[in-house]
Amino acid sequence: MHTPGPLPHHVSGGRAGPDVMKVGELVLPLTGCSALEKEIPALMRHCTLPGQPSRADHVDKGGDGHGTCDCGKCKCDAGWSGEACQYPTKCDLTKKISNQMCKNSQDVICSNAGTCHCGRCKCDNSDGNGLIYGKFCECDDRECIDDETEEVCGGHGKCYCGNCYCEAGWHGDKCEFQCDITPWESKRRCTSPDGKICSNRGTCVCGECSCHDVDPTGDWGDIHGDTCECDERDCRAVYDRYSDDFCSGHGQCNCGRCDCRAGWYGKNCEHPRSCLLSAEESTRKCQSGSELPCSGRGNGICSCGNCECWDGWNGNACEIWLGTEYP
Protein backbone atom coordinates (compact mmCIF):
# COMPACT_ATOMS: atom_id res chain seq x y z
CA MET A 1 0.00 0.00 0.00
CA HIS A 2 1.03 3.53 -0.59
CA THR A 3 0.44 6.67 1.38
CA PRO A 4 -2.89 8.24 0.32
CA GLY A 5 -2.80 11.41 -1.72
CA PRO A 6 -5.35 13.84 -3.06
CA LEU A 7 -7.12 13.38 -6.32
CA PRO A 8 -5.68 15.48 -9.14
CA HIS A 9 -7.82 18.49 -9.96
CA HIS A 10 -8.72 19.64 -13.42
CA VAL A 11 -9.85 23.13 -14.35
CA SER A 12 -13.33 23.05 -15.79
CA GLY A 13 -14.45 26.65 -15.59
CA GLY A 14 -18.06 27.40 -16.45
CA ARG A 15 -21.14 29.09 -15.10
CA ALA A 16 -23.09 27.27 -12.43
CA GLY A 17 -25.75 29.96 -11.96
CA PRO A 18 -26.40 33.67 -12.45
CA ASP A 19 -24.17 34.74 -9.54
CA VAL A 20 -21.66 31.92 -9.21
CA MET A 21 -18.99 30.24 -11.27
CA LYS A 22 -17.73 26.67 -11.02
CA VAL A 23 -13.97 26.17 -10.96
CA GLY A 24 -13.05 22.51 -10.68
CA GLU A 25 -14.86 21.28 -7.56
CA LEU A 26 -15.42 24.80 -6.22
CA VAL A 27 -18.53 26.93 -6.66
CA LEU A 28 -17.46 30.56 -6.23
CA PRO A 29 -19.31 33.90 -6.21
CA LEU A 30 -18.77 36.16 -9.20
CA THR A 31 -17.51 39.05 -7.11
CA GLY A 32 -13.92 39.10 -8.29
CA CYS A 33 -10.89 37.36 -6.82
CA SER A 34 -10.35 40.12 -4.25
CA ALA A 35 -13.31 38.73 -2.31
CA LEU A 36 -11.94 35.18 -2.44
CA GLU A 37 -8.75 35.45 -0.44
CA LYS A 38 -9.71 32.50 1.74
CA GLU A 39 -10.15 30.39 -1.41
CA ILE A 40 -6.68 31.20 -2.77
CA PRO A 41 -5.04 27.91 -1.62
CA ALA A 42 -7.79 25.89 -3.31
CA LEU A 43 -7.63 28.01 -6.45
CA MET A 44 -3.87 27.53 -6.68
CA ARG A 45 -4.41 23.79 -7.12
CA HIS A 46 -5.84 24.53 -10.53
CA CYS A 47 -2.69 26.41 -11.53
CA THR A 48 -0.45 23.54 -10.48
CA LEU A 49 0.43 20.64 -12.73
CA PRO A 50 -1.01 17.38 -11.33
CA GLY A 51 1.74 15.28 -9.83
CA GLN A 52 4.06 18.28 -9.46
CA PRO A 53 4.92 20.02 -6.17
CA SER A 54 3.22 23.34 -5.52
CA ARG A 55 5.27 26.54 -5.27
CA ALA A 56 5.06 29.48 -2.95
CA ASP A 57 4.96 31.86 -5.91
CA HIS A 58 1.81 30.23 -7.32
CA VAL A 59 -0.22 32.97 -5.71
CA ASP A 60 1.26 35.36 -8.23
CA LYS A 61 2.58 33.06 -10.94
CA GLY A 62 0.59 30.23 -12.50
CA GLY A 63 1.74 26.71 -13.39
CA ASP A 64 5.49 26.52 -13.97
CA GLY A 65 5.99 30.20 -13.22
CA HIS A 66 5.27 31.28 -16.80
CA GLY A 67 1.94 33.00 -16.24
CA THR A 68 -0.43 34.61 -13.79
CA CYS A 69 -3.13 32.77 -11.84
CA ASP A 70 -6.46 34.56 -12.17
CA CYS A 71 -9.39 33.04 -10.29
CA GLY A 72 -8.01 29.52 -10.68
CA LYS A 73 -7.10 29.80 -14.37
CA CYS A 74 -3.68 30.53 -15.82
CA LYS A 75 -3.03 33.50 -18.08
CA CYS A 76 0.21 32.56 -19.77
CA ASP A 77 3.14 34.85 -20.53
CA ALA A 78 4.14 35.35 -24.15
CA GLY A 79 5.88 32.27 -25.48
CA TRP A 80 4.05 29.81 -23.21
CA SER A 81 0.84 27.81 -23.47
CA GLY A 82 -1.09 25.04 -21.75
CA GLU A 83 -3.46 24.86 -18.78
CA ALA A 84 -0.52 25.46 -16.43
CA CYS A 85 1.65 27.42 -18.91
CA GLN A 86 3.95 24.44 -19.10
CA TYR A 87 4.58 24.32 -22.87
CA PRO A 88 6.87 26.73 -24.73
CA THR A 89 5.43 27.87 -28.05
CA LYS A 90 8.89 27.75 -29.62
CA CYS A 91 11.40 24.96 -29.06
CA ASP A 92 15.18 25.10 -29.47
CA LEU A 93 15.65 21.37 -28.79
CA THR A 94 16.24 18.73 -31.42
CA LYS A 95 13.60 16.02 -31.68
CA LYS A 96 16.06 13.44 -30.35
CA ILE A 97 16.89 15.47 -27.25
CA SER A 98 13.24 16.36 -26.73
CA ASN A 99 12.14 12.71 -26.89
CA GLN A 100 14.94 11.68 -24.54
CA MET A 101 13.68 14.16 -21.94
CA CYS A 102 10.18 12.68 -22.24
CA LYS A 103 11.19 9.07 -21.57
CA ASN A 104 10.12 7.40 -18.35
CA SER A 105 12.22 4.95 -16.32
CA GLN A 106 11.28 2.18 -18.79
CA ASP A 107 12.60 4.29 -21.67
CA VAL A 108 9.08 4.83 -23.05
CA ILE A 109 8.12 8.27 -24.35
CA CYS A 110 5.38 9.74 -22.16
CA SER A 111 4.43 6.21 -21.02
CA ASN A 112 2.61 5.76 -24.36
CA ALA A 113 -0.12 7.94 -22.90
CA GLY A 114 0.83 11.31 -24.31
CA THR A 115 2.94 13.22 -26.79
CA CYS A 116 6.26 14.96 -26.30
CA HIS A 117 6.43 18.73 -26.77
CA CYS A 118 9.88 20.25 -26.43
CA GLY A 119 10.99 17.84 -23.72
CA ARG A 120 7.67 17.88 -21.83
CA CYS A 121 4.86 15.36 -21.96
CA LYS A 122 1.36 16.42 -22.94
CA CYS A 123 -0.95 13.70 -21.70
CA ASP A 124 -3.83 12.38 -23.80
CA ASN A 125 -6.88 13.90 -22.13
CA SER A 126 -9.03 14.55 -25.17
CA ASP A 127 -12.17 13.88 -23.13
CA GLY A 128 -11.23 16.75 -20.84
CA ASN A 129 -11.34 14.82 -17.57
CA GLY A 130 -7.63 15.13 -16.73
CA LEU A 131 -7.36 11.54 -15.50
CA ILE A 132 -4.02 10.94 -17.20
CA TYR A 133 -1.23 13.00 -15.66
CA GLY A 134 2.29 13.02 -14.24
CA LYS A 135 5.63 14.24 -15.54
CA PHE A 136 5.72 11.31 -17.96
CA CYS A 137 1.93 10.70 -18.09
CA GLU A 138 2.57 7.72 -15.85
CA CYS A 139 -0.60 8.13 -13.81
CA ASP A 140 -3.93 6.95 -15.21
CA ASP A 141 -6.77 7.44 -12.75
CA ARG A 142 -9.19 5.71 -15.10
CA GLU A 143 -7.86 2.54 -13.47
CA CYS A 144 -9.69 3.61 -10.30
CA ILE A 145 -13.15 3.79 -11.88
CA ASP A 146 -15.45 0.91 -10.97
CA ASP A 147 -16.77 -0.76 -14.13
CA GLU A 148 -20.22 -1.35 -12.64
CA THR A 149 -20.89 1.79 -10.62
CA GLU A 150 -18.60 4.09 -12.66
CA GLU A 151 -17.58 5.63 -9.34
CA VAL A 152 -13.99 6.42 -8.41
CA CYS A 153 -12.80 3.66 -6.05
CA GLY A 154 -16.40 2.51 -5.67
CA GLY A 155 -17.17 5.64 -3.69
CA HIS A 156 -15.21 4.24 -0.74
CA GLY A 157 -11.74 5.63 -1.26
CA LYS A 158 -9.50 8.08 -3.06
CA CYS A 159 -7.47 7.61 -6.19
CA TYR A 160 -3.88 8.65 -6.71
CA CYS A 161 -1.83 7.71 -9.74
CA GLY A 162 -4.15 4.89 -10.73
CA ASN A 163 -4.30 3.28 -7.29
CA CYS A 164 -7.21 3.28 -4.85
CA TYR A 165 -6.65 4.05 -1.19
CA CYS A 166 -9.66 2.70 0.61
CA GLU A 167 -11.53 4.02 3.59
CA ALA A 168 -11.45 1.98 6.79
CA GLY A 169 -13.58 -1.14 6.42
CA TRP A 170 -13.22 -1.40 2.65
CA HIS A 171 -10.69 -3.18 0.47
CA GLY A 172 -10.08 -4.43 -3.06
CA ASP A 173 -8.41 -2.93 -6.12
CA LYS A 174 -11.31 -0.48 -6.38
CA CYS A 175 -12.49 -0.57 -2.75
CA GLU A 176 -15.38 -2.75 -3.87
CA PHE A 177 -15.35 -5.17 -0.93
CA GLN A 178 -16.51 -4.43 2.57
CA CYS A 179 -14.60 -6.08 5.39
CA ASP A 180 -16.91 -8.30 7.43
CA ILE A 181 -14.57 -8.89 10.37
CA THR A 182 -13.64 -6.67 13.28
CA PRO A 183 -10.34 -4.72 13.28
CA TRP A 184 -9.17 -6.92 16.17
CA GLU A 185 -9.84 -10.12 14.22
CA SER A 186 -8.18 -8.66 11.13
CA LYS A 187 -5.06 -7.87 13.15
CA ARG A 188 -5.06 -11.33 14.73
CA ARG A 189 -5.14 -13.07 11.37
CA CYS A 190 -2.28 -10.94 10.07
CA THR A 191 -0.03 -11.50 13.07
CA SER A 192 2.99 -13.68 12.27
CA PRO A 193 4.35 -16.26 14.76
CA ASP A 194 6.91 -13.73 16.01
CA GLY A 195 4.11 -11.34 16.97
CA LYS A 196 4.63 -8.87 14.12
CA ILE A 197 1.93 -7.67 11.75
CA CYS A 198 2.67 -9.33 8.41
CA SER A 199 6.24 -9.93 9.65
CA ASN A 200 6.87 -6.20 9.13
CA ARG A 201 7.04 -6.99 5.41
CA GLY A 202 3.47 -6.26 4.34
CA THR A 203 0.16 -4.53 4.99
CA CYS A 204 -2.84 -6.11 6.67
CA VAL A 205 -6.03 -5.75 4.62
CA CYS A 206 -9.16 -7.28 6.15
CA GLY A 207 -7.28 -10.15 7.77
CA GLU A 208 -4.99 -10.88 4.83
CA CYS A 209 -1.40 -9.76 4.35
CA SER A 210 -0.44 -7.92 1.19
CA CYS A 211 3.31 -8.46 1.07
CA HIS A 212 5.64 -5.67 0.02
CA ASP A 213 7.04 -7.30 -3.08
CA VAL A 214 10.54 -6.16 -3.94
CA ASP A 215 9.91 -6.71 -7.63
CA PRO A 216 6.19 -6.21 -8.35
CA THR A 217 6.77 -7.01 -12.05
CA GLY A 218 7.81 -10.58 -11.25
CA ASP A 219 5.58 -13.65 -11.44
CA TRP A 220 6.45 -14.65 -7.88
CA GLY A 221 7.33 -12.22 -5.16
CA ASP A 222 10.55 -12.39 -3.17
CA ILE A 223 8.43 -11.90 -0.04
CA HIS A 224 5.47 -14.24 0.41
CA GLY A 225 3.58 -16.44 2.84
CA ASP A 226 0.31 -16.06 4.73
CA THR A 227 1.96 -13.50 7.02
CA CYS A 228 4.81 -12.52 4.64
CA GLU A 229 7.13 -14.70 6.71
CA CYS A 230 9.15 -15.95 3.74
CA ASP A 231 11.89 -13.79 2.28
CA GLU A 232 13.58 -15.42 -0.70
CA ARG A 233 16.30 -12.76 -0.67
CA ASP A 234 17.90 -14.69 2.20
CA CYS A 235 18.67 -17.51 -0.23
CA ARG A 236 20.99 -15.36 -2.31
CA ALA A 237 24.60 -14.67 -1.40
CA VAL A 238 24.38 -11.35 -3.25
CA TYR A 239 20.88 -10.00 -3.81
CA ASP A 240 19.98 -9.23 -7.40
CA ARG A 241 16.26 -9.11 -8.12
CA TYR A 242 16.89 -9.93 -11.78
CA SER A 243 18.81 -13.13 -10.97
CA ASP A 244 17.36 -16.56 -10.22
CA ASP A 245 20.64 -17.78 -8.70
CA PHE A 246 19.18 -19.13 -5.46
CA CYS A 247 21.34 -21.07 -3.01
CA SER A 248 24.44 -20.58 -5.20
CA GLY A 249 22.83 -22.89 -7.75
CA HIS A 250 23.31 -25.90 -5.42
CA GLY A 251 20.02 -26.11 -3.59
CA GLN A 252 16.36 -25.25 -3.28
CA CYS A 253 15.07 -22.15 -1.52
CA ASN A 254 12.32 -23.00 0.96
CA CYS A 255 10.76 -19.97 2.66
CA GLY A 256 14.04 -18.09 2.78
CA ARG A 257 16.20 -21.08 3.75
CA CYS A 258 18.39 -23.16 1.46
CA ASP A 259 17.94 -26.92 1.25
CA CYS A 260 21.29 -27.91 -0.21
CA ARG A 261 21.81 -30.73 -2.66
CA ALA A 262 24.06 -33.63 -1.71
CA GLY A 263 27.69 -32.56 -1.66
CA TRP A 264 27.04 -28.94 -0.69
CA TYR A 265 26.53 -27.09 2.58
CA GLY A 266 26.44 -23.59 4.06
CA LYS A 267 23.76 -20.94 4.51
CA ASN A 268 23.64 -20.44 0.74
CA CYS A 269 24.98 -23.89 -0.24
CA GLU A 270 28.22 -22.21 -1.19
CA HIS A 271 30.65 -24.82 0.22
CA PRO A 272 31.40 -28.16 -1.47
CA ARG A 273 31.53 -31.25 0.73
CA SER A 274 32.95 -34.71 0.23
CA CYS A 275 31.27 -37.46 2.23
CA LEU A 276 32.39 -41.08 2.48
CA LEU A 277 29.08 -42.25 3.92
CA SER A 278 26.25 -43.60 1.84
CA ALA A 279 22.91 -41.81 1.99
CA GLU A 280 21.49 -44.60 4.21
CA GLU A 281 24.42 -44.44 6.63
CA SER A 282 24.22 -40.69 6.81
CA THR A 283 20.49 -40.76 7.60
CA ARG A 284 20.96 -43.43 10.26
CA LYS A 285 23.57 -41.36 12.08
CA CYS A 286 21.25 -38.32 12.03
CA GLN A 287 18.26 -40.18 13.47
CA SER A 288 19.66 -40.37 17.01
CA GLY A 289 16.89 -42.64 18.29
CA SER A 290 14.15 -40.92 16.30
CA GLU A 291 12.37 -42.34 13.28
CA LEU A 292 13.19 -39.18 11.34
CA PRO A 293 16.60 -37.48 11.11
CA CYS A 294 17.39 -34.23 12.91
CA SER A 295 14.33 -34.46 15.16
CA GLY A 296 12.15 -34.85 12.07
CA ARG A 297 10.53 -31.47 12.58
CA GLY A 298 12.36 -29.45 10.01
CA ASN A 299 14.79 -28.15 12.65
CA GLY A 300 17.80 -28.90 10.47
CA ILE A 301 19.17 -30.99 7.63
CA CYS A 302 21.21 -34.18 7.66
CA SER A 303 24.56 -33.81 5.94
CA CYS A 304 27.07 -36.65 5.92
CA GLY A 305 25.81 -38.09 9.20
CA ASN A 306 25.66 -34.76 11.00
CA CYS A 307 22.68 -32.54 11.69
CA GLU A 308 23.08 -28.95 10.56
CA CYS A 309 20.54 -27.06 12.67
CA TRP A 310 18.57 -24.01 11.67
CA ASP A 311 19.02 -20.81 13.65
CA GLY A 312 17.55 -21.18 17.12
CA TRP A 313 18.04 -24.98 17.35
CA ASN A 314 20.93 -27.01 18.76
CA GLY A 315 21.90 -30.53 19.75
CA ASN A 316 23.17 -33.59 17.88
CA ALA A 317 19.69 -34.06 16.42
CA CYS A 318 18.60 -30.39 16.54
CA GLU A 319 16.27 -31.32 19.39
CA ILE A 320 17.08 -28.35 21.67
CA TRP A 321 15.19 -25.08 21.15
CA LEU A 322 17.32 -22.15 22.31
CA GLY A 323 14.44 -19.69 22.20
CA THR A 324 16.52 -16.98 20.54
CA GLU A 325 14.66 -16.89 17.24
CA TYR A 326 11.29 -18.16 16.14
CA PRO A 327 11.65 -21.34 14.04
From TrEMBL:
<dbReference type="GO" id="GO:0009986">
    <property type="term" value="C:cell surface"/>
</dbReference>
<dbReference type="InterPro" id="IPR057243">
    <property type="entry name" value="Integrin_I-EGF_CS"/>
</dbReference>
<dbReference type="GO" id="GO:0033627">
    <property type="term" value="P:cell adhesion mediated by integrin"/>
</dbReference>
<keyword id="KW-0677">Repeat</keyword>
<keyword id="KW-0245">EGF-like domain</keyword>
<dbReference type="Pfam" id="PF07974">
    <property type="entry name" value="EGF_2"/>
</dbReference>
<feature type="domain" description="Epidermal growth factor-like">
    <location>
        <begin position="244"/>
        <end position="269"/>
    </location>
</feature>
<dbReference type="GO" id="GO:0005925">
    <property type="term" value="C:focal adhesion"/>
</dbReference>
<feature type="domain" description="Epidermal growth factor-like">
    <location>
        <begin position="65"/>
        <end position="85"/>
    </location>
</feature>
<dbReference type="InterPro" id="IPR015812">
    <property type="entry name" value="Integrin_bsu"/>
</dbReference>
<dbReference type="GO" id="GO:0008305">
    <property type="term" value="C:integrin complex"/>
</dbReference>
<feature type="domain" description="Integrin beta epidermal growth factor-like">
    <location>
        <begin position="99"/>
        <end position="138"/>
    </location>
</feature>
<dbReference type="GO" id="GO:0007229">
    <property type="term" value="P:integrin-mediated signaling pathway"/>
</dbReference>
<feature type="domain" description="Epidermal growth factor-like">
    <location>
        <begin position="145"/>
        <end position="175"/>
    </location>
</feature>
<keyword id="KW-0732">Signal</keyword>
<dbReference type="GO" id="GO:0007160">
    <property type="term" value="P:cell-matrix adhesion"/>
</dbReference>
<keyword id="KW-1015">Disulfide bond</keyword>
<dbReference type="GO" id="GO:0016477">
    <property type="term" value="P:cell migration"/>
</dbReference>
<protein>
    <submittedName>
        <fullName>Itgbl1 protein</fullName>
    </submittedName>
</protein>
<dbReference type="GO" id="GO:0098609">
    <property type="term" value="P:cell-cell adhesion"/>
</dbReference>
<keyword id="KW-0325">Glycoprotein</keyword>
<dbReference type="Pfam" id="PF23105">
    <property type="entry name" value="EGF_integrin"/>
</dbReference>
<dbReference type="GO" id="GO:0005178">
    <property type="term" value="F:integrin binding"/>
</dbReference>
<dbReference type="InterPro" id="IPR057073">
    <property type="entry name" value="EGF_integrin_2"/>
</dbReference>
<dbReference type="InterPro" id="IPR013111">
    <property type="entry name" value="EGF_extracell"/>
</dbReference>
